[in-house]
Amino acid sequence: MNPAPLLGGQLQGQIALVTGATAFIGRAIALELARRGAHVIVNGRNPEAGQAVINEIAANGYCAAFEQADLTHSDAVRAMVDRVAERHGRLDILVASGAGASADSPSFRLFKEMSNGDFDNYIRAHWLTRAFAIQAAARVMALHGRGKIVAVGTDAGRVATVGESFIGGATAGMMQMCRVLARELGRDGIRVNAVAMSYIWDAEPRWGPGSPALEGGHGKGMIENLRKRMLFPVHCQDIANAAAFLAGPESDAITGQTLSVNGGLSTPG
Fold first, then answer.
1. Residue 1 banded pLDDT, cuts 50, 70, 90
2. Does the residue 52 lie in any domain?
3. Which residues contact 264 (CB under 8 A, 6 or more apart)?
4. Which of 38, 160, 247, 266 is the most exposed place for a label (fewest CB within 10 A)?
5. Which domain holds residue 179?
């Protein structure tokens, strides 16, 4: 069940791009930004899945459009952002999500079992997808002297987790990049923050196979352990609420921060 509309929403008239928005967390973020008044650009690789999200947003009385682009290709991401800027004249919000848990992404793997190809895949999925989107969006935002950027990643970038050496390593690099960019891009009126998460109760894991010692069926063993250690359940809407807060005016005094939404699984400093 989606929350009720916000009359005179905090993001009224804002142009927001949500990458990886055709399912689960990205979808929830797109719906929440629309609920708060933004015109949402839904990004994904599958036009049919993207249209389903747009239809859902429109059915609730909000505005959205779809932009197809593979987040792992910088040229495609840059062209997408350029199309958005040309059509709307600006870009106010970027929420960089997606790619990290898609069906062609590697699952939990022990370091000793990984190949050089695995290293590249983890870095591209968990870090470079965010870097490509942020660089393209920041160029457009700087022209207007303002913007909000929110990067979504995993708490493995903050807490050492067995089986997530490169998931965590790549995400830690992404989060450090965001902290540096908060300083660099702040001069252009752009705020940069991150949302970190762990197990999400209503998001279906779609990874490829991982290490047999950790897996129990596409990481099921690790996922069950994470779930048991959580004090409170976390749903896609919880991540959407955090992203929307960092995209909205209530967070104008916040930049360069990472907000963990993990149900008490860990308390990183």
1. very low
2. yes
3. 230, 231, 232
4. 160
5. 15-260
| Number of structural domains the chain divides into | 1
Does a structural domain hold residue 84? yes
CATH of residue 170: 3.40.50.720
Residues 67-92 pLDDT 10s:
999 999 999 999 999 999 999 999 99
- pLDDT tens column, 190-245: 999 999 999 999 987 666 667 787 765 444 567 777 888 899 999 999 999 999 99
